[in-house]
Structures are given as structure tokens and as C-alpha cells.
Fold ATPase AAA-type core domain-containing protein.
Amino acid sequence: MILEFKTKNYKSFVDEAVFSMTAAPKQKGLDYSLLVKKTKGKSVKGLCSSVIYGPNASGKTNIIGAMDTFRAIVLRGHIRNSEDQSSPNQASSSLELIPNNMEKCSEPVLFSIDFIENDLLIHYEVNLDLGCFLDSEYTRKVLREELHVNNEKVFVRDDKLSFGDFKNINKFLADNLYRNEDSIIEISKNSLNDEELFLMNGFKLIISQSFVKLITNWFTNKFMVIYRADSLQLIKRFVDPQKQTVYVETTTNNAAKLFGINSNALGYVISENEADAKLCSIFKNMKDQKNAIVAAEIFESYGTIRFVNIFPLVIRAILTGGTLVVDEFDASIHPMALMSIINVFHNDEINVNNAQLIFNTHNPIFLNSNIFRRDEIKFVERDDGNNNSVLYSLSDFGTTGEKGVRKHEDYMKNYFVSQYGAIKDIDFTPIFEELISREREV
């Protein structure tokens, strides 16, 4: 369960942006949106969902891109560029795309995350010197790196490396650690590399491989960040593929039928020469009653394909207690289908593993006090003067004063009269008036 994500100097977010999934104080109602976890005897109230609003090019996708980039850096363990360029988020593999393009000199890039896994509150933060925008030849450096567990320092790495108390991760440590503590600390200091994360390298090899595995498993399997979901493809792989092997996932297929698929079934088909499965429509040929297989993009709507690609990730989040973050989740998907998915995350009897859903949207239907709490509704606004993005929550307005937001107000109406900001008045009429005027002159 994620509690907080921070970033600074990531593309349009020049100043520090804090994305909180912790319940704000003095928020009443919609208690089903709360996830209560205990760590070290203390109760933490997290949010099970969050929706992000803002005009086009405001930075909504950038905040999700920052999460995806941080995830990629942690999992590969260094700040060198990745050879894998397959991700639609190019900044996750080519780090020279991260710094703000308006900055004339290098400013550090910050990533920070707080999450709960295995009843441990984990805080991990990195501060990186990546150079200026598009400077791929810059000598990069990890300026600072820190790990805290249950609010206790485990290590801090800056100009030097210092350790705190390992008591909160004792069960993950080797028996001989304390017997050889001095030498292990010295070896750890000598293992530092400017371009490598100490957590994923020296700490993993010298201090605790099992604890790092806990973290990497969370980033790999439970922190599911889908950047630009329009290009999302869910790939099914088989250990021993055979020609025309067909795999139908029952739960997803049943959900697709409720969604309104046109074929008898949707399945993943793998051919003899291809390792990657392809989504196909499967139906009976009316002439010979045999199964006929057609590529899904030929027979199904774009919205259906997106739904079937995404729904297995919803299932995984609910079953594992994962955090699903999706850019433009509702694109080409009917609001009622998305509303049902939101209700699943809000259902205490179904969401027993503390799963979370985070997505951005332009659809105002979710600006409703009966669907989301004020602390679950986020806004991103971009300053027209300096092009910097700012992230804030509806709960930041408070409940009193001229701009106060009360529980049962009409959030949608207030948003469209620009009471909360993060909206732009767009009028294309002058462009066409000028165009028509030029045509008449000719």
C-alpha cells in the first residue's frame, strides 16, 4: 500500500510535488475509501483510490510518468540509460529526458516513496544529478539515497555512507552480520558507485538480499504503473508454446461479456514461431461449428480491447493488495464500467488486501462527493508564465472561508466555474475566424 510519492525536477514538476495517499485530517464520510494498516502498533489510514484532474498538457501524465520512471530505476539498480527502449515512457530508459527543459543548469532530481509491505513502513528516497535536459553525455551521480523502516534510519548515503539501527529488519539479516559488523560496514562503503543505487547493489549483496527482495517484489508485482494506457498491451507468455495454442482466461472473459464483447470468447493465441501471445476473438463458424479465430483488433472495438488488456491488472491488484496506477484509465471505456471497477476498490468485503487505484481523467462524472473523498481528488495545474506544474488536493482548500470546500457541495459545478483551478478556457473561434477571413481575401 502506497502512502506517499514525491518528485522534484521531473519534467514540468520543477518544484517538489507530493502525491499523498494518506487520509487527510478532518475528512468525514466515505470511510469505505480508507485502508487501515498497523505498523509497529500504530494505525495508518491510507486511501484506496485517487483521481487526478487537469487540462491537457498540465502534467497529469508526468506525475504518473515519474512513478513509472522511479520504478524502472529502482528495478535496474542504476542511473545509466537502459538498452530496453520498448516502454512508451522514454524517460524511464533515457534519463536525459527527465530534467526540466527550461532549466539552464543542472538541478537535482528527487524521487521518494513511502509504502507498507509485510507490515513494515518503508521509506526510500533518491536524489540524482542527471545533468541538463538532453545532455546524454553528462557524468551522472547519486547525490543522496536513504532508506528508513518504521521511521527508523537503516542507511543514508550522501558524501559518505552511514547506518542506523537494523532492529526493524532483523529477521532479514544474516546471523553473522553483527559478529562482523565493522568489516561489513567498511566493505559497504567501498562498494559505492556514483551511478548505482546502494540499496540494489552493495546493501543487497552485503547486508540483506532477502530484504531487498521484499522491496523489489513490491516494485515488480504490486506497484503497477501503466503509462499511456492507449498503447498498453498485456502479454501472455507460455513456457512451451505450441502451434495455435489458445488460452482463455475465464474471469477476464466473463467480465468482457458483461462489458459487451461481440465474439463468443476472447483468448490469447500463440503461434509456433512467436513467443508473445496475441489477443484474439474466438467464435464458432456457423458452417462447420468449428472454432474460428480472428485478431481482436479486427473484430472488437478499441474500448473492448483496452478493457480486456487492463482488467487482469485490476484482478491482480485486488488479489495481491497492489497499487494500480493508470494514465487515462477511462479512455474509450464507458463511465459505468469504470464506476463498477471503482466500486470494487471501495468495497470492504472485496478489497480485503488493501488494493489501490490511481488514475487521471477528463471525465467530470467522478467529481462527486458520493464517489470520492476530498483528499482522493487531485488537481494538476500548469503556470502559463513559467510552464511549471503544481499538484494539489481538493482537501487542501479546507472547509471554511471563501474557498472552503464542504462535503456535499457540487464539485463538478464548482470545477467548471474554475473555483478549484486546473481548468483552461479554450476557444478556437478566433483561429477559424482568421482562417475564413484569409480565404475571403484570396
In short: The two ends are 63 Å apart (CA to CA). Residues 1-228+327-442 form a domain with the Rossmann fold fold (CATH 3.40.50). Residues 18 and 218 are 21 Å apart (CA to CA).
